[in-house]
Amino acid sequence: MICYFSLSTKSGPSKLETYMKKASEKPVKALLSRCLAYAMNRRRSKLLVLGLLASATYAQAQETFPVNGIADPREKCFAFTHATIVKDPQTVLNNATLVIRDGKIVDVGPAAAIPKDAVVLDCKGKYIYPSFVDAFSSYGLAEPKKGASAWNAPPQFLSNTKGAYGWNQAIKSEVNAVDIFAVDDAKATPLREAGFGTVLTQQQDGVARGTAALVTLADERENKVIIRERAAAGYSFNKGSSTQNYPNSLMGAIALLRQTYLDAQWYKNQGSKEGVNLSLQAWNNNQQLPQIFEVSDKWDALRADKIGDEFGVQYIIKAGGNEYQRINEMAATKATFILPLNFPGALDVEDPNDARLVSLASMKHWEMAPSQPAVFEKANIPFCLTAAELSDTRQFLANVRKAIEYGLSPAKALEALTKTPATLIKSYDQVGSLDAGKLANFLITSGPIFEEKTILYQNWVQGHKYTIKADGWNDVRGQYTVSVTPGATFNVEVKGSPASPSIAVIQADTLAGKIDIDGKLVTLSLPLAKNAKSNLRLSGMLGTGDWTGTGVDTSGNPVKWTAKFVKTLPEKAENKKSATPVLGALYYPFNGYGWEKLPQQQDLLIKNATVWTNEKDGILQQTDVLIRNGKIAQIGKNLSGGNARVIDGTGKHLSAGIIDEHSHIAISAGVNESSQSVTAEVRIADVINPDDVNIYRQLSGGVTASHLLHGSANAIGGQSQLIKLRWGQSAEGLKVTNWDPFIKFALGENVKQSNWGDRNTVRFPQTRMGVEQVYVDAFTRAREYEKKGPNRRRDLELDALSEILNHKRFITCHSYVQSEINMLMHVADSFHFRVNTFTHILEGYKVADKMKAHGAGAGTFADWWAYKMEVQDAIPYNAAIMQKVGVVTAINSDDAEMARRLNQEAAKTVKYGGLSEEDALKLVTLNPARLLHVDNRMGSIKVGKDADVVLWTDNPLSIYAKAAVTIVDGIVEFDRETDLQLRSRIASERNRLIQLMLAEKKKGSPVKKATYVPDEIYHCEDLQGGHQQGIVY
Amino acid sequence: MFGLAMWLHSAYAQETISPAGPQQKPVFLTNAVIHVGNGQVIEKGTITFDKGKITAVGTSVAAAPADATVVDLKGQHVYPGIIVPDSDLGLIEFESVRATIDVREVGEINPSVRSLIAYNTDSKVINTLRSNGILLAQVTPQGGIISGTSSVVQLDAWNWEDAAYKVDNGLHFFIPRQNTGGRRGPNGGDAPKTALDQVEGVRAFFREAKAYLQEAKHTATNLKFEAMRPLFKKEQKLFVHCDLVKEMLVAIDFAKEFDLDVTIVGGADSWQIADLLKQSNISVILTQPHSLPIMQDDDVDQPYKTAAQLQKAGVLFCLSNEGFWQQRNLGFEAGTAAAYGLTKEEALSAVTINAAKILGIDKMTGTLEVGKDANIAVSTGDMLDMKSSVITQAFIQGREINLDNKQKQLSEKYIKKYGLQ
Lengths: 1033, 421
What we know:
Number of domains of chain A: 4
CATH topology of the largest domain in chain B: TIM Barrel
Number of helices of chain A: 27
Oligomer: heterodimer
CATH architecture of the largest domain in chain A: Alpha-Beta Barrel
Domain Amidohydrolase-related (chain B): 338-399
GO molecular function (chain B): hydrolase activity, acting on carbon-nitrogen (but not peptide) bonds
CATH class of the largest domain in chain A: Alpha Beta
Protein name (chain B): Imidazolonepropionase
Largest interface: A-B, 73 and 61 residues
Radius of gyration of chain B: 22 Å
Largest sheet of chain B: 8 strands, mixed
Organism (chain A): Chitinophaga terrae
Protein name (chain A): Imidazolonepropionase
């Protein structure tokens, strides 16, 4: 039983209607009395209530549902005539008619026949559009409940979901929105007000989220509003409500996705071994649907697409909002994007000390974010728009307008809200345009929908009218002649907007009066002379053209009156089309120190420098080095470089670029997948963050390459990635290719969770004894895995371990005390592989002879100790002793700050242990290159090697030395002069944007308090959030 | 070179590295490059000291008496001992082991808590600082908002009473962060407001304490208020730990309202208000130069050059180095400040005399001037540059201290094992 009445002046169905619907299964008597009580409370007219009762049943009732009362079948045929009908973004029909029946479009066009039983609504001057489709919503689905707070709970290794589901609680492929969907008119109302008629709704929870349902926003029974039960499948990198520990990093989520693709394949073919796994079964079933991946930023978009590429899936990407910053990479994904319009608000930067807390990057994002849809349009990337992530859905149209102001074409905006999303979810046969046969989902507006002044009057969903704004439906503007009896006859002009008209009496002076319209009732208050003490007060009905009624004159005597329509008034042509804002330049990366244009490889001739070759030539005085095509081309005296750019090295020192063997810079969302003792499947390569300002800062300290390691939270951590510091490149551009892959292992206190607090006493191992067994077990499993046939379940963790066994992947192992170092070498020996590098290795000096015999190298700190129990015997002489014993030794950072002074850390080995200066510098150049198997192309100044070099102002081992120029692959990535230019650009750009934000505040726009948002930096012990850099906390 | 010989011969276990006895004979260090600490450098100079005090510094000093120990330094460099402010030394042995941590007391306002009595003279870390020329430390409690009272200790002592160099020299006030996420600040909600409320709570405490101290008789003794007496009498300084401008403005405001001797500790953004600090007579214990810039857009070398900016503005400042074991690198922090704008002698002052002034011990130490304590470090080369900084001898109050440490001993042990030289 649906209450329907056409005179409602409130938005959509009233609470009363909703109430009646929800109560429809209750005895009719009680229902009616409650309705009446409610209506009387609301002081509605009796007439309205009676009307309501009369129409309290409805045509679209379902046959299986019994009717309580007298059946009231209706076909609900309507004809909307004389409208400008925007059938689809390409087709505009003038003076056309739209005919609907039974919730569907029957006919549309200038010549559409009006059925006899149609209720005709004259839409002269009005526009009709297809209602919008939102391809990313969780409408009608309850918020998933998060389990007990994780921080003080013991670790959870397996899923808590009851039933025959998979091992990981974040894989919720078995969840179907259609099963849990319930109409929620309170949530539907703002969506309808924003113009939406249909949404693709999904429980936005977990890494795999199951299926989404396509539903309309009609306030009807679920049975009727669900128009596609399984319309898409959803994914994300966010484990959502899962209380399980794994994954607790972005790279873990990525690994989980990968493994699940493989597991699902395997399950399909060899399922019996697994038993019934409803999660994998659902995963497989969901594959034929459109696959939607929600990400939170541009790099995540690329990460998602890359996973898709690996498994032959083209995701539709629900974007985060900053994808415009890397539009070429976005285009290369070939994905269709769903763009949110969550443009950041201005910050309150009135107080300069608060303004200081805001980064230029975030101010630039504030400026540029509204241009995202326009940038996508220009790049020809297909996209839809979504209202998701708006804190106030009602802001949606305003934000679409803002996007249009920033360059999005209105036609594209309409397409992105109708045809594109409908097509994307394979439902263009039902929604997305006004073609016969589709759902009667349409908007009636006062003009072109995206224009500022346009009023959205009605949003019809499945043939049900939802009034958004009633005022102004009748446009009464024009010139009238008012005749008052007894009294005068005079002219008035009704101007303003249709929704809030104004009135003036036209005499010698123009005298402003008052006009109120409520439905068909009109009330006028008109002055008849300048400075009149009292007005003529009239009340009447709007007719078609003429108005009539009664009133009182200025003396209080009763009068009768009529107003006769004379003519429409010419509209003032408004040429106030605001120009598209001129935006600041994009930076690569999107950071104050980013480039507007990436620096190019150049031929360079460094003249007359002291050259530390790291080769048998040693240190050469007054020597030239020529760089061509990114390689070192020539070393000698008085070289001529043709057109090469000359850099004067007089009085300066040239060395190979510093290579940091142990770094955690430029990593997104977690350096540790700390949930399990063995996580060989996770990969740092998946989570490189090219925006990290520490890349630039390290270039300023002469670093040219960094080995990005997983943290040390588990015995077998993740796979690492060597990058070159090519500032401005994307993740793929930073990676060193054709490189022997490495993996991080760890020993000691972190692995056995000694310092993780009292709750972490559950995970195996808790002792160094157990650590050994973790390795023996892992490699035993890997050996047996290798022997399994081709039909084995592919296991990414064992794949990585198998690579180690086959000398195709190499270990760098976090380690401190001698017993555990010894142990791992024994394990390696027994499985016939070699531990490539022990990192930190603060007691390496105690087993240097054994390390040499095993063939292990070392990357250590210069002088760290006393930060925990297992470093009580750490000594600053460690590097020198290992080096002297014959172990390939490097000094590494594990710290974004120290990394930019690694030359000084190397110099400490001169002080502690008496290494020669030449050998000391090798600890941060050639030796790490050897440890990383790249000494054939990096680490020394030798003809043919990569031109990764640093020009220092002084002896590079001196505390007084600064990197004057840092060159990577023959590209000047850092030099002091350019740095000064960047600083002044930062200052002026900051100032420009602060002024814009101040202007925004002055305009009265809401502003948020400026607060400090620290960058994330990592050490290898950081478990989840990392720690904040900058101010020492 | 008897200093060098000394540590080689005394390579016993750490436990046998004993504090030196009082200076018995006059010492003459000759043929040295003497860095006085006040900017002056004396080439081929001699420094003499007796009974713990410096007796002469210059190129022509009175001849050595017969019983004097005369050492020809052959061009080595002589420096005032480095002073490390804001230190956890002797209060923490291993950062991850709770049982060894005595630096943070429970409670927000603890002015009566004193670091000196917890200072562990047997910490293995102390000797690793001495062997890098660090001879004095301000041992500082770190917990809560008013964390307690620091003392300056000398690093060659049998117990904390021996170690005491200046007792209870300052009270420490950790300003709650006005931004979210800080260890010392409130999280979530309106963090800036909560932080400001907490500051007002401290102000109210100061006002009540001041009023309490006006009256001699009380029915109940308030130890917290009593502990504030030396501060209000200016026998103690107020060390205000903060970094951002708005936080430093609070410090300046406290100095004014309560007429206090205030030093800012941290001061990452002090360069922004250097003139105001100078004008308000506020000194700064500057956060270590070896830090990352606090804001993404900051000059990449901002922490390196802040010292030079304060110097230029005439602000009295010294350098700090977070923690305890890390503080053996304080000299190199000064070296970096010299690479980025200070002269080398200004940089030396930033870890010697300036620190002495700020900690209130400049009458006793901080420079190599006649009458001051003979707190002296001898280095083979530039002490501020790690590649040339090898400390061969050091004296605290004229006593030649043993420069051996646990790490040297472990090194020796394994050098022997491998037959290395």
